[in-house]
Amino acid sequence: MDMFTSALEADKDGRLTDWIIDYLHQSGDNNKLAGDLLRQGKYHTGFINYPIDKLEKLLGPKKSFDYYEDPSSYEHRVLSMVESIANGWKPAPLIASRIWSDHFELHDGAHRAEALRRSGVASYPTVFYFEDEASLNDFVVSFSAMKSSELFL
């Protein structure tokens, strides 16, 4: 079973948190985020098909990114994913939060997001994490209103 399908199954079975933490420890290779989410990310959405360009990437090939990656390494990873997408691969969902800033940051999936964007995908299933239940509820209400706005056209 591919990562995307296993994530959907985990969500359906009420095991999404466990799936995300396991994914981050293994395939996602993002142990720090896994630990941070266990400590501070107790509230999250399920999968939301969200515009990729509305998420702030933290990792990239420019020195201005929080997490800099050598441009040739970054490009190699992205191009490999673009080719895989063209061959039918469906990447794991993106993981974003507003826990550590006042806007949505893409904490896991920068390479996947760029490969999807280059492949012509504008929106992709994303799981959003929040520090508290009130922030989650506010997002759910505002997201419902946004779905019919120009953000999603």
Short key terms for the protein model shown above:
153 residues, 6-stranded mixed sheet, two-stranded parallel ribbon, 8 strands, 45% helix
Describe this structure in words.
This protein has helices spanning 3-12, 16-25, 31-40, 71-86, 110-118, 133-146, and strands at residues 43-44, 48-51, 56-57, 59-60, 67-68, 94-97, 105-108, 123-130. The strands form 2 sheets. Strands 1, 2, 3, 6, 7 and 8 form a 6-stranded mixed β-sheet that branches. The chain has a two-stranded parallel sheet with strand order 4-5. It has 153 residues and is α/β, with parallel strands linked by helices. The chain is built from 6 helices and 8 strands; from the N terminus they run H-H-H-E-E-E-E-E-H-E-E-H-E-H.
Task: Sum up the overall morphology in one term.
Answer: globular
Helix and strand composition category: alpha/beta
> Mean pLDDT, as a whole number?
87
What percentage of residues falls in helices of 4 or more residues? 40-55%
Estimate the strand proportion: 15-25%
- What sequence of helices (H) and strands (E) makes up the elements? HHHEEEEEHEEHEH
Number of E-type strands: 8
Number of helices, where a helix is a run of at least 4 consecutive DSSP H or I residues? 6
| Radius of gyration from CA coordinates | 15 Å
Biggest beta-sheet profile: 6 strands, mixed
